[in-house]
Design brief:
The chain is built from two helices and no strands. The chain has one domain. By secondary structure, it is mostly helical. The N and C termini lie far apart (about 50 Å).
């Protein structure tokens, strides 16, 4: 955001990029966490 703000004197570009990046980062995070939690639950139920 600092780069965009310094070049354009506006936070708009940085905020737009952040709003696009956040969901793209959240999606794989949720899928990996769910998969890991499911695997852990399965291992615990087998034991």
């Amino acid at each position: 955001m600092r780069f965009a703000n310094g070049r354009t004197d506006s936070y708009a570009i940085g905020l737009w990029r952040l709003s696009a990046t956040a969901p793209l980062t959240l999606l794989p995070t949720l899928t990996v966490v769910r998969r890991t939690a499911r695997r852990h639950d399965e291992e615990m139920s087998i034991s």
